[in-house]
Amino acid sequence: SKKALIFDLDGVIVDTAKYHYKAWKKLANNLGFDFTEEQNELLKGVSRVKSLEILLEIGNVTLSDEEKLKVMNEKNEHYLGFITKMEQDEILEGIPEVLNYLRENKVPFSLGSASKNARLILTQLNLIDLFDAIVDGNDVSKAKPDPEVFLIAADKLKTAPENCIVVEDAIAGIEAANSAQMTSIGIGDKETLGEADIVLSSTAELNIELLEKLLRK
Ligand code: BG6
Ligand code: MG
């Protein structure tokens, strides 16, 4: 069986989660309510529009469709301000080694992200050419926890979902991987990501030894 990997972007390849949080928090504050880091967990892995809906629900705020578009654009502009200043040293620990190992061993891998900024971020970090396929928020109609993004990735990698190993930091992403019948690796704490097949506390634990074990199975 031809094994393949699918990587989430935000919180797995690079710690953009903190920038998303800052930008959403500013929007919440502008709308007159606070937004905590704990609440931010609910937005991880979720599409931009769905994130806004969750945020508005938390603040008990209603906006017209037109206002929603406006604040989403403002949030993204604010976010892009952080992203375009990002440096390669913001790539999470161990990730470059893992990607290089996979390439050297001809194990195909794809991105599977909800972000519409994914290509921009991978270009900025000089990682875009390493990937065999990229599936992001521009390619899907159903957001995580729907498995669509990962199923498209498996298809692009020309392998069956059962052969795919997904690396994810979000609850919605783990759910998506599980319902796609893929092996799920959660990056984060066990409490939050209990549904994952394997939980690692950080990307530093996603080492070659573990990968070799999973690829041999
Ligand atoms: C996910 C992030 O990867 O992408 C979410 O975890 C984010 O927090 C979503 O809202 C959409 O990202 P973007 O860049 O299209 O706003
Ligand atoms: Mg993520």
Question: Secondary structure elements and their pairing?
Answer:
Blueprint: E1 4-7, H1 17-30, H2 37-40, H3 48-59, H4 65-83, H5 95-104, E2 109-112, H6 118-124, E3 133-135, H7 148-156, E4 164-168, H8 171-179, E5 183-187, E6 198-200, H9 208-216
Parallel strand pairs: 1-2, 1-4, 2-3, 4-5, 5-6
This protein binds 6-O-phosphono-beta-D-glucopyranose (BG6) and magnesium ion.
Can you describe this structure in just a few lines?
The protein is built from nine helices and six strands, in the order βαααααβαβαβαββα. With 217 residues, the protein is α/β, with parallel strands linked by helices. It is globular, with a radius of gyration of 17 Å.
Architecture overview:
This protein is of the alpha/beta class. 43% of the residues lie in helices and 11% in strands. It has 9 helices and 6 strands; from the N terminus they run E-H-H-H-H-H-E-H-E-H-E-H-E-E-H. It has helices at residues 17-30, 37-40, 48-59, 65-83, 95-104, 118-124, 148-156, 171-179, 208-216, and strands at residues 4-7, 109-112, 133-135, 164-168, 183-187, 198-200. Strands 3-2-1-4-5-6 form a 6-stranded parallel beta sheet, sandwiched between helices. Strand 4 (164-168), helix 8 and strand 5 form a beta-alpha-beta unit. Helix 1 packs across helix 4. The longest helix has 19 residues, at 65-83. The protein is globular. Bound molecules: 6-O-phosphono-beta-D-glucopyranose (BG6) and magnesium ion (MG).
